[in-house]
């Protein structure tokens, strides 16, 4: 297991033992609305997603991180954040999901900066992309703070979504580096 610490977070590589936390996350009301179109996720849905997330780690050496907030001496699971292969391109797709009661305090951007920095330092990929469903203003705001720019609307998973992108140089020039300390 790979683990890093940022100022307020602990980020751990996704592992099979994270299935219960992912089940809780993927059935959180905010995540249900913004990602899963109000379709409850079954244990089997979560297990399939986890298998796919683990395949990204094996292939790339990075992927979705399980994110924990440092609270006193007990870390609390708050979500996932990561980059993964986007279809048959050389682009990395950024995706994140946080529990409803943990958003709005700057923890997402902290996790995102670490995640993107780590992936770009450990790959030759030149572009980070993201898809945001129309009306998800919280995600739009977070993505643009990271330096991603809206390009156009594109089909994603059968739905027309906003497509954002950022090149490696764009990210590095903005000085968003967020290094974590391994533990």
How would you summarize the topology of this molecule?
Blueprint: E1 3-5, E2 9-13, H1 19-26, H2 29-34, H3 43-60, E3 64-71, E4 74-85, E5 91-98, H4 107-121, E6 127-133, H5 137-145, E7 149-156, E8 159-167, H6 168-173, E9 181-182
Parallel strand pairs: 5-6
Antiparallel strand pairs: 1-2, 1-9, 2-3, 3-4, 4-5, 6-8, 7-8
Helix pairs in contact: 1-3
Task: Describe what you observe in this structure.
The protein has one domain (3-182): Gcn5-related N-acetyltransferase (GNAT) (Aminopeptidase, 3-Layer(aba) Sandwich), CATH 3.40.630.30. Strands 7-8-6-5-4-3-2-1-9 form a 9-stranded mixed sheet, with helices on both faces. Helix content is 34%, strand content 34%. It has helices spanning 19-26, 29-34, 43-60, 107-121, 137-145, 168-173; strands at residues 3-5, 9-13, 64-71, 74-85, 91-98, 127-133, 149-156, 159-167, 181-182.
């Amino acid at each position: 297991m790979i683990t890093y610490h940022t100022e307020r977070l602990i980020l751990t590589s996704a592992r099979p033992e994270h299935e219960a936390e992912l089940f809780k996350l993927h059935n959180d009301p905010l995540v249900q609305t913004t990602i899963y179109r109000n379709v409850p996720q079954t244990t089997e849905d979560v297990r399939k997603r986890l298998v796919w997330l683990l395949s990204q780690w094996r292939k790339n050496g990075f992927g979705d991180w399980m994110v924990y907030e440092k609270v006193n001496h007990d870390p609390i699971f708050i979500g996932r954040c990561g980059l993964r292969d986007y279809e048959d391109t050389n682009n990395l797709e950024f995706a994140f999901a946080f529990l409803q009661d943990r958003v709005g305090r700057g923890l997402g951007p902290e996790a995102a900066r670490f995640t993107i920095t780590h992936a770009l330092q450990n790959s030759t990929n030149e572009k980070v992309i993201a898809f945001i469903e129309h009306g998800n203003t919280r995600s739009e705001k977070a993505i643009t703070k990271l330096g991603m720019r809206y390009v156009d609307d594109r089909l994603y998973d059968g739905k027309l979504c906003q497509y954002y992108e950022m090149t490696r140089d764009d990210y590095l020039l903005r000085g968003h580096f967020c290094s974590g300390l391994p533990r």
